[in-house]
Amino acid sequence: MIGPESEQLGVVGIRRALDLAQENDLDLVEIAPTAKPPVCRIMDYSKYKYDQEKKERRVKKSQHVTHLKQLRLKPNIGVGDYQIKLKQAIGFLDKKDKVKINMFFRGREMAHKELGRNILERMIKDVAEHGVPEKSPSMEGRVMFILLNPAASKT
Questions:
Q1: Distances (CA, A) of 8 to 27, 39, 41, 116
Q2: 36-56 pLDDT, tens per residue?
Q3: Residue 7: its pLDDT value, please?
Q4: Fewest C-beta atoms under 10 Å: which of 72, 101, 110, 140?
């Protein structure tokens, strides 16, 4: 058994352990039930639970869940619109989210896939310090896409 000040009390009977816990206005908590004999500790259980929850919240706060953000482009995108999409992509990558950039082709635009590929290649070059592509642009039906991963942080 372990006492309220973390001192070793040795092997103590259950009645004596409960009496010691009651004298100190604390709880008797079983720490290692599988040990022979089982190990118990006299402590304030509600304070222990509170500290554990606080620790979990701190760990959870420092974690980041990666999301997949998607941007839609067309091969005849204007310069201003391109700059807006570029800023959005950089913002997502800086927040450590993946970005999927979709280039949609309609009608006769399918005959000029190289225009869409050039725009995607330019986007890859412009976000190079913020993110890296998983692979080169690929075509799926009428959509050409590229998947960008956030760059490894330099800190």
A1: 16, 11, 9, 73
A2: 888 999 999 999 899 999 999
A3: 87
A4: 140
Return the percent helix, strand and coil in the chain, to nearest 5. 40, 25, 35
Residues 90/91/93/94 CA torsion (nearest 10 deg): 110
Predicted pLDDT at 53: 93
Residues 53, 72 within the same domain: no
Model confidence over 90-108: pLDDT tens digits? Answer: 999 999 899 999 999 999 9
Domain assignment present for 8? no
Q: What is the 3-state secondary structure (H, E, C) of 57-110?
A: HHHHHHCCCCCEEEEEECCCCCHHHHHHHHHHHHHHHHCCCEEEEEEECCHHHH
- Which value, to the nearest 10 degrees, does the dihedral of the CA atoms of residues 48, 51, 55, 58 take? 160
- pTM of the full predicted structure? 0.60
Number of domains in the chain: 2
98 and 47 fall within a common domain = no
